[in-house]
## 1
Amino acid sequence: MVNFNKKIDRSENDSRKWAGRKSYFGREDLLPMWVADMDIEAPSIVIEALKNKADQKIFGYTMENEGYIGSLVNWVEKKHGYKLFCDRIAHSPTVVTSLNLLIKTLTNEGDNITIQSPTYPQFVKQIKSNNRKVMINKLIEKEDGYEIDFIDFEEKIKNSVVFILCNPHNPTGRVWTREELSKIAEICVKYDVKIISDEIHSDLILNGKHLPIASLGKQVELLVYTCLSSTKTFNLAGIQSSFVVFPTTREKESFVEELSLIGVHEPNSFCMDMVISAYNHGEEWLEELIDHLRGNIEFAIDYIGRNIPQIKVKKPEATYLLWLDLREYRLSDEKLKGRLVEDGGLALTMGGAFMGSGFARMNIACPRYMLEDGLERLKKTFG
Ligand SMILES: Cc1ncc(COP(=O)(O)O)c(C=O)c1O
C-alpha cells in the first residue's frame, strides 16, 4: 500500500505551487492549494526508472523509441477500451504546446474557436495569442452539476472552425456522458468542425468511465485531435511529456515537422523511461491514488457542508479539483483572494482565471494533514 498521507517537503523542489507563492500572492507563508499538480510523491517504480536513466550518465540528443508510444497505446486500450494506431500518435512536450500548434495548423487568423466556460485558462490564452476569436458556450449550472446548453452550442459551432473540448472538464470536474459526447460529435460532424479534445484528466476519473470522443465512430474520429498525457496522472509535469492522437498519419507527420521547426520534437532524456514505467507498471499505484483522492473529496465536502455551508461545492466526477462557489459572499475575486490570503493564509486559484468569477478552485491532491489544514484555513476565512 502506498502511503499518500506521508509528510512531504517541497521547499527545495522549485515548485511553482510553493516557490511561486510570493510572486503570485505576495506572501510566502500561505498554504498553496492552487496549481494543478499533486503534493504527492510519484510512483516509486517511476522514480526507479529515472534513477536508472541518470545512471547512464550521458544525456545527448534522443530519438523516440517504440516502447514510448507503445506504452500509451496499451494504456489507452486497457483503461479506456480504445485502440490507437502508433503511426497517428506524436510526442509533444506538453499539452499546452500541442494546443498552440494545433490552433496554428488547423485554423487561420480571425477564425472562431469555441470553448466552454468556465474554462481552463490556457484555452483562451492560446486562441487569443494566435489572433483567433474565442466563442464561448457557457455551461449551464443545474442543481446536480454543470450541463451543456446544446442550443447555444450549435449556434457557436455553426460559426466556428474548431471546438476545444475538455473531457473530463477542468475546473468543474464533469465527466461528459456518452449521450453528451455523441451530441457534441453529431453537431461537429454536421458543421464539419474539428475537435481538439484535451483529455489530460482522463485517467483521474472518480466516478464513471472515460469515453474518448474519437472512439464514437469513424465520422467523428476523422475530426478529432486528442491530447493525452501521463504527467497529470502520475504527477510528472516537471519532466514534460504528452501525446497528440491524429486522425491521419499525414497530419501527425506535419505536426512533428512543426515541432521540429521550433526544436521540441525530441522527447527529453528522462521522459521516455518515465512514461514507459508509469504506463506499464503504474496501474496499481493509480488505483490507490484514486481511492485517496475520493477519500479527500468526501472529507472536504463533508467538512465544508458542516462548517462553512455558505460555500457550495459539488462532488467532482473526475480530477482532484474542487470548484468552490463563493458567490454568497458577494465579493469580487480580488476581495475574495485578499480575504483568503490575509485571513486564512490560503492560496487558491480564483474563478476569474477560468471565466468563473465568484468561484475558487481548490486542489485536494495532497496528504490528509494538508487538506485538514487547508479546510481549517478556509473556515477561518469564511466560517
Ligand atoms: C485541461 C488541461 N490541459 C492542459 C494542462 C496542462 O498540461 P501540460 O502541462 O501538459 O501543458 C492542464 C493542467 O492543469 C489542464 O488542466
Note: DSSP finds 15 helices and 14 strands in the chain.
## 2
Amino acid sequence: MVTPEEAVASFEKRFGNHDGFRRLHAKGWLYRGTFAATPAAGALTRAATFNGDPVDVVARFSNGGGNPKHPDYAPDVRGLAVKLSHGAGALDIVAQSAPKFPVRSLDRMVEFVKAGEQSPAGFARLAAFIAKDPRTVLPALAADAPVLKPPTSYAEHRYFAVHAFVWVDADGKSHAVRYSWEPEAGVNYLSGKEAKALGPDYLHEELDQRLTAGPVRFTLRVQLAEPGDRTDDPTVQWPASREVIDAGTLELIGPETERETNGDILVFDPTRVVDGIELSDDPVLAVRSLVYSESVRRRTGVSRPADVDA
Ligand code: HEM
C-alpha cells in the first residue's frame, strides 16, 4: 500500500517540485465572502454553520495539477475549496469539477495521476490503469472528459465534493448526504482557441473583474441518501432520483488578501467538520487528510498540528 509520503512524492515526480505550492491544485486564488443556510438544511443538521446566520467564508479556486505555471487554457479539473467559519469552528467543503471520481483507494489515485502524463509512458500507464478496473474507470472518464474543457469562468462551473458525509439533526437522527455547488451564472465553456486568446491566467483575472460588478453566488446542493445507498465508495453515485435540497447560498464578494501572507498557513481539509456533521465510512476521505498534511509539510516546512488554521 502506498503511504501518504510516497503518494505526495509521486505527485512531485509528475508535476515537479514547486517550493511553497500545494502538491496538487497548485495554482489557485483566494476569495472572501459569506454563506447563509436555508431552513431546510437547518432541519437536517444541528451544525451551527447551518443555523441560517451568515458565516464568514474563505474560498480558493484552483486548477487540478501540481504545476503552478500551467496555463488556465489547458484541459484540467478545477477546484473550489470553501472554509465556512462559525465562531471557533470551521467546516471545509473541498470540491472539484469532475462529477465521477474514478478510484476508490490511494494506490489507484497515485496510478491515475501518473497515467495523466502526456507522454508515451503516460499513455501506456493510462491503458494499464483502465485495464485494471474498466467498469469503474471508463464511465468516469466519459463523464469527466467534457468538464476538463476551459470554462468561461471559475464562477460558471459546477463543483462536486464526491464523498458522503453524515448530517446529524437536533434529535440525533443521521442523514447521509453528498454536496455539490451549483453556479448562479450557469455552466459555460470556451473552445481551446478562445481560451488561449485570453492568456495563461485568464481565470483569476476574469473572476477579479467579475467581482467588481457584484457578488458571485453558488447554491449548495445536498443530495440525501436512501437506506442501502453506499457511503463508503467515492466512485458510486446515488440515483439521480434521490431528493436534493438547496442548503444555502455562498456569496463571494472579492479577493482575500490577508491569508497566506506573512507565513500564514491555510489548509482546506475535507475531514474538517463541526458538531452536527460526521465523516462517512469512505476510506478515501480519511486518507486524503493524511496526504494533505504531507503536502502541507512539504510546502510550508510545518508538520501540521491538528488544529492549524481551524
Ligand atoms: C486519494 C484521493 C486524493 C488525493 C491523494 C488528493 C491529494 C491532494 C493534495 C496533495 C492536495 C494539496 C493539499 C495541500 O497542500 O493543502 C490536494 C488539494 C485539493 N484536492 Fe485533492 N486529493 C484527492 C481527492 C480529492 C477529491 C475527491 C477532491 C474533490 C472532491 C479533491 C479536491 C481537491 C481540491 C479542491 C484541492 C485544493 C484545496 C485548496 O485549494 O487548498 N481531491 N489534493
Note: The mean pLDDT is 96.
